[in-house]
Amino acid sequence: MDICTTVLEKEATQPIAAPKADKTRVAVAMSGGVDSSTTALLLQQAGYDVIGVTGWLIKSGSRCCDTGMIDAAKVCEQLDIPHHAVDLREMFKSQIVDQFPQSYARAQTPLPCSVCNTLIKWGALFNYSQRILQAKYIATGHYARIIRTGEDVQLARAADPTKDQSYVLWGLTREQLKGTLLPLGDYRKDEIRSIADKQKLASAHRPDSQDLCFIPQGVTTQQYLSNFLPETPGPIMHSLTGQVLGHHKGTHNFTIGQRKGMGISSSEPLYVTHIDPDTRVVYAGPKSALLRRDLKAHSANWIMTEIPAQSFLARAKVRYNSPAVPAIVTSLPDNKIHVEFEEAQSAITPGQVLAIYDTSDTLLLGGGWIE
Questions:
Q1: How far apart are the C-alpha atoms of 353 and 369, rounded to whole Å?
Q2: What is residue 21's three-state secondary structure?
Q3: Domain 230-285, CATH
């Protein structure tokens, strides 16, 4: 029996009111932040039968779980809608928290928020909302748009390019999109803040979350990893000359493209260009050594209606804050993707997300995990 099924069985004993006859029920995944809170408000104003649902992710000491669930409950009380907290601690720990240091041990830089979207929001909470809460839709506070044409759905960038979050939604299936509402996709962030402020929502002035929710405030990633990974000393070598530049205490302390914190001196700026966890070698070189013309990604997920049998032109994005650039995309066997960029890209990092957009840079076509 999987964790999600166990959660559903535990929660199934709670009495759930039937959906209102004249309204469509939507469950809003509420973190306690202003975005998800305003999502619930907007959907209620639009005439939906709204229920708030929050995943309880961490046992204690977490900013999101200690204050987030409380703020979400306060907003639901203000809106006079039910609020459900679903115990997902076991799933979150085994599938996300425990995997975080293991990714670094394999010289991969993980993106836990993307995993959380797939496993938690559109995994456990999506199933809970449909099966237990009898909701037709789940809604979140992500800034992206769902375009519906008859029975077809497409995932598009948000109207506000500075807040677009479509990149981290690459793992959603078409069926999940059909059961999803993203009302913030047509708004700017300042508009959402203004709406929440006018309605005096409890979360109206709550700051945006910038850090990983399971790393305590004030603790760096390296400090956090030291609690789980032992020191594994090794050399730092120049990627072009092979010269030993210094030594490190563990490859998990580095990520591709890193410049500061290497503990070496050089007459030229040096960046981490490659990490070999097996030999414990960290390679450093000039910025030009970070450039790559192609990549492969695994665990591909396609949102587009049909995957072209041959290579096709698209735009590819290799990190959250980078632009989507022209590339040739090829779907490979074993659920993999090959991407060849029109121009070489810097610091392509294993463990991060590859997102593929159409040539207009509007529709998200799919993605995968960068190898």
A1: 5
A2: coil
A3: 2.30.30.280
Is the distance from CB of 334 to CB of 140 less than 8 angstroms?
A: no
Q: 3-state DSSP call for residue 79?
A: helix
Q: In the CATH hierarchy, which top-level class contains the domain 291-370?
A: mainly beta
C-alpha to C-alpha distance for 22 and 90, rounded to whole angstroms: 37
Note whether 107 and 350 are within 8 A (CB).
yes
- Pair 117, 171: CB distance under 8 Å: yes
328, 313 contact by CB (below 8 A)? yes
Torsion of Cα atoms, 30 then 36 then 40 then 43, to 10°: -130
pLDDT per residue over 82-134, tens digit each? 999 999 999 999 999 999 999 999 999 999 999 999 999 999 999 999 999 99
Q: Is 0.70 topped by the overall pTM?
A: yes
Neighbouring C-beta atoms of residue 161, cutoff 10 Å: 9
d(CA 333, CA 311): 13
Token pair listed for 181 = 């509402």
| Sequence spans of domains, the chain | 3-7+23-198, 230-285, 291-370
Q: What residues are labeled active site?
A: 116, 213
Burial zone of 178 (CB within 10 Å; 0-12 exposed, 13-18 middle, 19+ buried) = middle
CB 188: neighbour CB atoms within 10 A?
15
- Which CATH code for domain 3-7+23-198? 3.40.50.620
3-class DSSP state for residue 197? helix
Q: How far is CA 265 from CA 91, 238, 247, 262, in A?
A: 43, 12, 12, 9
- Same topology, domains 3-7+23-198 and 291-370? Answer is no
Q: Please say whether the beta carbons of 284 and 245 come within 8 A.
A: yes
Q: Is 167 helix (H, G, I), strand (E, B) or coil?
A: helix
